[in-house]
Amino acid sequence: TNGGNVLFNANSGGSDYAGGDAVYLLGQGSTISTSGGNITIGGGAGQDGSDYAVTSNGSSDGVRFENGGGGFTMDAGGGNIIIRGKSNGGQYGIFLGSQNLITSGTGTITIDGQTNTNMAGVYTSFLGEVTTESGNIGITGKATGASGYGVYSENTEFTSQSGGITLTGVGGGTSNGLHLVSGTYIGTPSSGSPVASGDISLI
Known about the structure:
By secondary structure, the protein is mostly beta strands.
């Protein structure tokens, strides 16, 4: 779009989706670009994405992005990117694989996932970049299953030139709230100048 918003809204009837992933996006080299408009993925009867996209299917996720061969890019171009997903008896609240989430200027990126199973509230694998210029990045994951992770990340870069980056995780039982493994990078984009300001917080 040329400044218009993009919205994916699940569960508009107010009930959990039992047929599979509440929101499923397959990459295959595609791009969603808004040139300043917001990109919102969520759910709820309000049909504005302000609530979670919720699945109750035992083998599915609230929000799932898959590679499909060629990856997938969301570029808000100064707008905000907001993703909210929840698993109610399924698997991951949010599963993100082989995508780039990008915005510029003061645009922010917010990812909020929850699960009541032994998976992860937010799971990122070979995600590529989650990057802003001066806007903040906030990743929040919560799992209430006995061995579930709040945020599980591998091979993902969370970067900002001058915005703050906050990862917040609450794990179930004795599991880690934040489980950051091989290939996870948090800081300045490798191609950019050093960060002038902006805190990194792991909670």
